[in-house]
Recover the amino acids of this structure.
């Protein structure tokens, strides 16, 4: 569905285009022909109708770009879910492993396999830490156990930690790729909004002047562009302020 910003602009574009089409022949065309030159009437009518068509085309392009951007952002959802689930699993395993290393092999054991400071919760830092721990468990001998009957089995923990770490890494890569796509759709959306705003301003200002010239101040007020909100009419109600928390 369109964003709130685009939805408001679309509402104004429909209103301005409808009034333009309905008034192109009369009163705009008639008054121009009567007060200036009858030969100008067909050209003025054609100009108004062409501007309304151009405005609608710009609005449709903006709406399509907004829809494409929204669809692209929805594509991120499965990757985010996969990332968050894998992150939670990797974090839980690392916290358990760290505690167990200290309990079985002494206070220096966690540092021997790569633990430093607090275990990070940022998914990318967590992925990197998990990779370091896996590599260290595979090649670095652990300090002697405190009790000979209770020693940690590195292979067991590698087998537990490696699969969710791989899933986390892939999810982060997929999100990065989706992010690059989202940047492109957002850039296209912003470009279409800028083109729409320009077309709306030119069309609405001209219609305002022509309707004023035709003595239709009430209709001129309805198409007058806002000086505060680009791409909207002055009469369109602003968004209500959010309720205080």
């Amino acid at each position: 569905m369109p964003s709130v910003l685009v939805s408001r602009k679309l509402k104004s574009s429909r209103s301005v285009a409808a009034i333009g089409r309905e008034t192109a022949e009369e009163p705009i065309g008639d008054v121009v022909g009567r007060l200036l030159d009858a030969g100008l009437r067909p050209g003025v009518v054609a100009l108004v109708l062409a501007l309304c068509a151009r405005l609608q085309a710009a609005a449709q392009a903006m709406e399509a770009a907004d829809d494409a951007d929204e669809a692209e952002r929805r594509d991120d959802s499965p990757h985010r879910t996969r990332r968050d689930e894998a992150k939670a699993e990797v974090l839980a395993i690392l916290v358990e492993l760290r505690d167990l290393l200290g309990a079985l092999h002494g206070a220096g054991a966690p540092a021997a396999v790569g633990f430093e400071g607090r275990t990070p919760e940022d998914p990318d830092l967590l992925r990197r830490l998990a990779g370091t721990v896996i590599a260290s468990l595979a090649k670095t001998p652990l300090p002697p156990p405190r009790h000979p009957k209770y020693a940690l089995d590195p292979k067991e923990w590698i087998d537990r930690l490696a699969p969710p770490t791989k899933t986390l890494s892939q999810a982060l890569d997929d999100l990065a790729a989706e992010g690059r796509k989202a940047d492109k759709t957002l850039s296209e959306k912003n470009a279409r909004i800028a083109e729409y705003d320009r077309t709306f301003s030119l069309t609405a200002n001209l219609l305002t002047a022509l309707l004023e010239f035709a003595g239709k101040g009430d209709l001129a007020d309805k198409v007058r562009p806002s000086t505060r909100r680009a791409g909207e009419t002055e009469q369109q109600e602003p968004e209500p302020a959010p309720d205080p928390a």
Summary: The radius of gyration is 32 Å.
